[in-house]
Amino acid sequence: MSKIAIAIHGGAGTILRSTMTPELESEYRSGLDNALNVGWEVLSRGGGSLDAVEVTVSALEDFPLFNAGRGSVFTHEGKNEMDASIMDGKTNRAGAIAFVRNVKNPIRLARLVMEKTPHILLAAEGANEFAKQMGVESAPDEYFFTDHRWQQLQDAIKDGQIRLDHADDPKSQIPNPKSLGTVGAVACDGQGNLAAATSTGGMTNKKFGRVGDTALIGSGTYADNGSCAVSCTGHGEYFMIGVTAYDVAARMKYKGLDLKKAANETLERLTEIGGDGGFIAVDARGTIVLPFNCEGMYRGYRTEDSQVVEIYRD
Ligand code: ASP
């Protein structure tokens, strides 16, 4: 039997104590705790890591403060278009969706792509059509409406910017994210099987068909029982250049590094190429790492010994 373990994130960026109220902080913490408990429940009953990451990410998608599912940011047209991906470390099968609308839990749809189609990534109208055919739960536009996201869209339109969640660098061609809200989970079950899942609402005011790392296997999500399971959050363009999720696994596989060393090297590489953000990862022994190179990352993990939820760097 392997040691069961689960880790989650709710995005990374400029997350400072000085800009947080105690009420908001406790809301974030309870959202993270609740998601960890939902996943732990599956693992502790002897369930598989794939089910654990799916229900955990679904819980984070249902939580309105994170930029995924219900809390997704608005496109220029005032819609919510979501990306998600999932990977099974035992079979190395994967599924992903990009640009889906009105799907309550995009991560469920990503899993259905993996299990019910010969494909890996479905996008836009085709992905929405697939959602209808699969009968996945849909939700009306109002379900995805949150005041703070709407205000972000109005600000971004006023400034003529396409922004990652809370980006505030109007002069940069690639916007510089200051606080990101994508969600993700990685897990190791009692059989030593690994899985990873990631989900996002993408960028506020997006209108050019931009797809980020969250929809891309190898960049935002990766899992292989022989190395590790990884879920990323941060400035997606750099995670795509660095193939960041796979980079951790490759360093373990080809350099023979343990998870901690591999994760450190990957974070160094991400920083070198200019990317802000972080990732969570677990190996088949239940070792967890949650490295990031920005001010904070909503994150947490649960093992047999402890349950930890953290937000800031210190
Ligand atoms: N990686 C995501 C993207 O670039 C954003 C995030 O992690 O918040 O779409």
Question: How are the secondary structure elements laid out?
Answer:
Elements (H helix, E strand, L loop, with lengths): L4 E9 L8 H23 L4 H14 L19 E7 L4 E8 L5 H11 L4 E3 H11 L12 H13 L23 E6 L5 E7 L20 E3 L5 E6 L1 H7 L1 H12 L3 H14 L4 E6 L5 E2 L6 E7 L4 E6 L2
Parallel strand pairs: 3-4
Antiparallel strand pairs: 1-5, 1-11, 2-3, 2-6, 5-6, 7-8, 8-9, 9-10, 11-12
Bound molecules: aspartic acid (ASP).
Describe the structure.
The chain has 314 residues and is an alpha+beta fold. It has eight helices and twelve strands. The strands form two sheets. An eight-stranded mixed β-sheet has the order 4-3-2-6-5-1-11-12. A four-stranded antiparallel β-sheet has the order 7-8-9-10. A hairpin with a 5-residue loop joins strand 7 and strand 8. Helix 2 packs antiparallel against helix 3. The protein is globular and about 50 Å long. The protein binds aspartic acid.
Short key terms for the protein model shown above:
alpha+beta, 22% strand, binds aspartic acid
Summarize the structure.
The chain is 33% helix and 22% strand. The protein has eight helices and twelve strands. The two termini are 34 Å apart.
